[in-house]
Write a structure and sequence with these properties.
The chain has three domains: about 110 residues, 3-Layer(aba) Sandwich (Cobalt-precorrin-4 Transmethylase, domain 1), CATH 3.40.1010; about 80 residues, Rossmann fold; about 80 residues, 3-Layer(aba) Sandwich (Cobalt-precorrin-4 Transmethylase, domain 1). Helices cover about 35% and strands about 20% of the residues. The protein has a five-stranded parallel β-sheet with strand order 10-9-11-1-12, sandwiched between helices. β9, α9 and β10 form a beta-alpha-beta unit. The longest helix has 17 residues. The radius of gyration is 26 Å and the shape is flat. The protein starts with about 20 loop residues before the first strand and ends with a strand.
Length: about 325
């Protein structure tokens, strides 16, 4: 029996277009990375203040140097100001993790403000060192970056003119203390370990009687995050540091990675700002985060990489 035309009709086979093949990319995640204990503590102080006093709670300077953190706290009712004259009478005000000059809490007390000190305990350690050296009649050399809030806060623990600020070995070669036999040095807590060592070496050569800290001032969180980057950088073709441009410890991680052998090292704030063309041809990408950058920002970057590459961690 002959088949009808309908019986002999063959339906076309439809197939979905093949998904593009993703290029393989290995992500090397540094450990430790991200939040340190001092940053975590400072953020919790703001959150607890909001719970206790209600919004708004004022914060003098960014509580930590990270835009994501600051914006998240602002959404909860924190108001960030640069100076106390922006804080209304009878309000609650938090001092940032970087520390403040002594004049700031004194002014807060004079005005009757409710003040909470979120200064990192390791920064407070340096403050106490400065006070002790001054009490012993020593002039102080502070190794740090001019204009950084931590440096301003530390210098503000002792009378004006007591501290000489030095940022580079070249400056260390030319600094002129009043009496080299009555001299001490302190450092900013978030410096590059290698940079600080280079400056200290010059100072100790020039002023062998100079006193120093019993335990180094660069905090352990800064030190061990830099050590982790030094370990992974030689084995990566590029390194991405997640953190804010005004974060000293994040910027130092970029420098440390470059010096450790990975010249293609960049600072990014979050996944949306990543220029993925910078890892063209890269098969191993190192990722870390500054001490003020939350882990959620690392997770964002990893997720964005998975969208573009066949990722192995």
């Amino acid at each position: 029996m002959p088949y009808s035309a309908n019986q002999m009709k063959v339906e076309p086979v439809t197939t979905s277009p093949a998904a593009p093949i993703k290029r393989p990319l290995t992500l090397v995640l540094a450990s430790p990375r991200g939040f340190c204990a001092g940053v975590d503590r400072a953020i919790h102080i703001v959150e607890r203040a909001l719970e206790k006093y209600g919004a708004p709670v004022y914060v003098r300077h960014e509580i930590v140097h990270n835009r994501f953190v600051v914006e998240s706290l602002a959404q909860k009712g924190a108001v960030f100001v640069e100076e106390l004259d922006e804080v209304p009478d009878s309000a609650a005000v938090v001092f940032s993790a970087h520390g403040v000059p002594k004049t700031v809490p004194a002014e807060a007390d004079r005005r009757g403000l409710t003040s909470l000190d979120a200064t990192c305990p390791l920064v407070t350690k340096v403050h106490r060192e400065a006070e002790l050296h001054h009490a012993m009649g020593r002039q102080i050399i502070m190794i740090g970056h001019a204009g950084h809030p931590e440096v301003i806060g530390t210098i503000g623990q002792v009378p004006e003119g007591t501290v000489l600020l030095v940022g580079t070995p070249e400056q260390a070669e030319t600094v002129q203390p009043k009496d080299p036999s009555m001299l001490a040095y302190i450092t900013q807590t978030t410096l590059s370990v290698d940079d600080a060592a280079a400056v200290i070496e010059v100072l100790q050569r020039r002023f062998p009687d100079m006193a120093g800290p019993k335990r180094e001032d660069i905090c352990y969180a800064t030190t061990n995050r830099q050590a982790a980057v030094k370990t992974i950088a030689p084995h990566c073709e590029a390194v991405m540091v997640i953190g804010s441009p005004n974060s000293s410890n994040s910027s130092r991680l970029v420098e440390v990675a470059a010096r450790a052998g990975c010249s293609r090292s960049v600072l990014v704030q979050r996944a949306a700002e990543v220029d993925w063309s910078m890892i063209e041809g890269v098969s191993r990408l190192g990722i870390t985060a500054g001490a003020s950058a939350p882990e959620i920002l690392v997770e964002e970057v990893v997720a964005a990489a998975r969208e573009r590459f066949d990722v192995t961690i």
